[in-house]
Write a structure and sequence with these properties.
alpha+beta
Length: 111
């Protein structure tokens, strides 16, 4: 396990987008999509946040892009939401959260 205090933005490798979707059919943001290079850029710009910040500090929007990556060599799955909040789950079940305010603005979303 690693310390998020020692979080390295270059820790993501082999980033791959798997799907885009929305929790609710017909959501206003359902056209939210990211290419693999854009997703990699978002993951590199993000900073560690708490679970409370993930839910309350960013807009929790119904639209997302999901993918896979290695994080410091560990297979992981990630979800980037249109509000700039990101969850990452490693293969051992460890989950952590990231946020990228500037990314949300580039997606056309701001608080």
């Amino acid at each position: 396990m690693f310390s998020l205090n020692a979080f390295a933005i270059d820790g993501f490798t082999q980033v791959r987008v798997v799907m885009a979707g929305a929790d609710q059919p017909g959501a206003f943001c359902e056209d939210f999509k990211l290419s693999t290079p854009k997703a990699k850029s978002v993951l590199r710009k993000a900073r560690p946040i708490t679970s409370a910040e993930y839910l309350e500090g960013y807009l929790y929007l119904p639209c997302f892009v999901k993918g896979t990556a290695n994080f410091h060599g560990r297979p992981s799955k990630w979800t980037i939401r249109a509000g700039g909040n990101i969850s990452v789950t490693q293969d051992d079940g460890l989950e952590f959260y990231l946020g990228c305010e500037s990314c949300a603005k580039s997606f056309g979303i701001s608080r």
